[in-house]
Amino acid sequence: MNLNLTLIGQAIAFAVFVWFCMKFVWPPVMQALQERQKKIADGLDAASRATRDLELAQEQAAEQLKESKEQAAQIIEQAHKRANQMIEEARDNARLEGERMIESARGEIEQETQRAKEELRTQVAALAIQGAERILDSSIDEAKHRELVDKLAAEL
User: Transmembrane residues, as ranges?
Assistant: First the structure.
């Protein structure tokens, strides 16, 4: 009977040990395992979210870079257009200024020509009167002289 009683005592001790483990040891171990699983799952979710966020951020950065390049290209194109426009305006202004200077020079030449013609008329009239005086051997008074010069100038 010793064997039976020992076996029953061991079975009872084992049952108490199992009950004790199930009641006091097993729940904290299971809770720790569940918490660890939850932390691992949360970590994996966070890593997945971080990967998605990183991909999204990279896409946004690429899009912004593309937009910035397009804007820079537009600004450069506008600058080239404006520079060409300024060059054309400068050419037009220079051409107009040159034409204006040519017209001014032509006007001055015309005035000088008229002045020279008038002076030449006066000199020709004076020479004609001097020649006539010498031919006639007579002197004409100043008033008569002016009248003849004006008359000759009008005829010429």
Answer: 5-25
In the chain, where the domains are located: 40-155
pLDDT digits (tens, 9 = 90+) for 99-153: 999 999 999 999 999 998 888 888 877 777 777 776 665 556 677 777 777 777 7
DSSP string over the chain? -HHHHHHHHHHHHHHHHHHHIIIIIHHHHHHHHHHHHHHHHHHHHHHHHHHHHHHHHHHHHHHHHHHHHHHHHHHHHHHHHHHHHHHHHHHHHHHHHHHHHHHHHHHHHHHHHHHHHHHHHHHHHHHHHHHHHHHHT----HHHHHHHHHHHHHH-
The overall pTM is greater than 0.70:
no
How far is CA 112 from each of CA 104, 108, 142, rounded to the nearest angstrom? 12, 6, 28
